[in-house]
Amino acid sequence: GTTVYYDADCNVEKLVGKKITVLGYGSQGHAHALNLKENGMDVTIGLRKGSKSWTAAEEAGFPVKETGEAVKGADIVMVLIPDELQADTYANAIAPNLKKGAYLAFAHGFNIHFNKIVPPADANVFMVAPKGPGHLVRRTFQEGSGVPCLVAVEKDPSGDTMEIAKAWAAGIGAGRSGILETTFRQETETDLFGEQAVLCGGVCALMQTGFETLVEAGYNPVNAYFECVHEMKLIVDLIYEGGFQTMRNSISNTAEYGDYLTGPKMITEQTRQAMRDVLKDIQSGAFAEAFIKDSKTGFPFLKGERAKAENHEVEKVGAALRNLMPWIKK
Ligand code: NDP
Ligand code: MG
Ligand code: MG
């Protein structure tokens, strides 16, 4: 079974007296840094020269230094910059300044698992991966709870790397909801598969295609948006609370009948095979290579698709509808 740790199983004090550097002050960076600081830890922020985040980190009361300077002398370096920039930043600014025996940490296993970063033998390497966006890591902490985290240790010359990883996870609030032990490989490959095949790629394509099908058949785009996009949250909230059964208990028999009849017509053997192929490309490193290659040439694919998506009719209809629904927070 899976080992789950809570606050009582973690010793946050293990971080006291350690010089902690968080690289990056974006979604994850601000959340880890602020939560640890409010738990009494000594946190410095490392950013590149001219960074847009620099002022925000200073205004929050952190000492801010350029990446290489911030790494010098640090006992723990948590790398919270975009995945595609980590390997170059590691080579140029982290590796030349990393103290012997330091702990090098990540919130996603990508660069370690795909060997884009190969730390020296004396470095301790761990991961604390919150299973939610940084803004939720921050907000739930302030509310007295926390976002669950995965923890993993890749290299442990000191012998206490898992203790430090658990302390970090508890320090950002995850001990209040659950800290699950995993490996870099498990975290990296399941995270990439989930976001591509299901959560982001799969679900958005499903909703948008449903919308297009109704509009193409002459239905009002407003109705199409409500049925294929807006209501997704209500259904997912029920699944989140109690699984598929809870959701099916609260929908009509009509909806449940259509659910069983039509689901298998949408997700066919061909779709299942496509999922297996996607997983193979993740496992082989082909996806990682393609992503890094796009990033190195200025993200032509990412930016082209982003522009297409932003201009799709579904977004215009959604924006107009949300304006009519003041209860939806901006
Ligand atoms: P963001 O894009 O939100 O933030 C990146 C931060 O890094 C910014 O402050 C940016 O500042 C800074 N930065 C960019 N380049 C450099 C550089 N070369 N040197 C120093 N700082 C730099 O990143 P995320 O928080 O989304 O992602 C960070 C890590 O967390 C990734 O490994 C990601 O996979 C992981 N993660 C993210 C989750 C999420 O929900 N966002 C969830 C779980 C894990 P500026 O551009 O102004 O220089
Ligand atoms: Mg991810
Ligand atoms: Mg309905």
From TrEMBL:
Query: Keywords in UniProt for this one?
Result: Amino-acid biosynthesis, Branched-chain amino acid biosynthesis, Magnesium, Metal-binding, NADP, Oxidoreductase
Binding-site positions, NADP(+): 25-28, 48, 51, 53, 134
- Taxonomically, the superkingdom here is Bacteria
The UniProt record gives the binding positions of substrate as: 252
Q: Cofactor note, please? A: Binds 2 magnesium ions per subunit.
Record function comment: Involved in the biosynthesis of branched-chain amino acids (BCAA). Catalyzes an alkyl-migration followed by a ketol-acid reduction of (S)-2-acetolactate (S2AL) to yield (R)-2,3-dihydroxy-isovalerate. In the isomerase reaction, S2AL is rearranged via a Mg-dependent methyl migration to produce 3-hydroxy-3-methyl-2-ketobutyrate (HMKB). In the reductase reaction, this 2-ketoacid undergoes a metal-dependent reduction by NADPH to yield (R)-2,3-dihydroxy-isovalerate.
Question: What is the official name of this protein in its record?
Answer: Ketol-acid reductoisomerase (NADP(+))
| Gene coding for it | ilvC
